[in-house]
Design brief:
Helix content is 41%, strand content 24%. The strands form two sheets. Strands 1-9-3-7-5-6 form a six-stranded antiparallel β-sheet, with no helix packed on it. A four-stranded antiparallel β-sheet has the order 4-8-2-10, with no helix packed on it. The protein is an alpha+beta fold and 176 residues long. The chain is built from two helices and ten strands. The chain has two domains: 45 residues; 83 residues, Sandwich (Jelly Rolls), CATH 2.60.120. The chain starts with a helix and ends with a strand. Strand 5 and strand 6 form a beta hairpin.
Length: 176
């Protein structure tokens, strides 16, 4: 009979202990969910906290990159304007010179005489490079019409010797 009493006593006691252990394990799991060791993300967290945070960071990074690109583009445009003498022109312009007017420009200036007569203006040799004929033009020499000339140094250009001379010009220049 003693054995039967022991079973009656220990069996419910064991069941209570087992239930308590299971209950504690459940509370422990519930308490640690969502922590760093057991991350749990809910849909509301994703929609209300995570996604807006990521979007804000992304917009900040895009704004920074856009600002950097804008600064680089501005610097390159400024360099281009400096190279072209501030005109920023990338196409030929028609310029008509009166007698004794002088058109001068910097390195890379292109001149194409179309009408009238112009002579090369330069402080030293070579004055202009004849891109069509493949030669050089010294100061004081008459430029051939419809030949393309290029200045390879600063302060090179042409001077009109007829009442009116028309040239096509590409690059920065001044007329005096």
């Amino acid at each position: 009979m003693k054995r039967h009493v022991k079973r009656r006593f220990f069996l419910p006691l064991g069941a209570v202990i087992l239930a308590a252990a299971a209950l504690l394990a459940g509370f422990s799991a519930a308490a640690s969910s969502g922590s760093q060791s057991d991350p749990l993300i809910s849909r509301s967290y994703l929609e209300k906290i995570f996604a807006p945070g990521i979007m804000a960071e992304t917009e900040t990074l895009i704004a920074q990159k856009e600002s950097a690109l804008t600064q680089r583009l501005t610097a390159q445009l400024e360099a281009y304007r400096t190279e072209t003498g501030g005109t920023g022109q990338a196409t030929y312009r028609v310029v008509t010179l009166s007698k004794d007017q002088t058109l001068t420009g910097g390195v890379g200036l292109e001149i194409l005489p179309r009408a009238g007569s112009v002579v090369c203006v330069a402080d030293s040799a070579p004055g202009l490079i004849d891109m069509t004929g493949g030669g050089t033009m010294a100061a004081g020499n008459v430029l051939a019409q419809n030949h393309l000339y290029m200045a390879t140094a600063g302060d090179r250009g042409v001077q009109a010797v007829t009442d009116s001379a028309t040239v096509l010009v590409k690059g920065g220049y001044t007329v005096r």
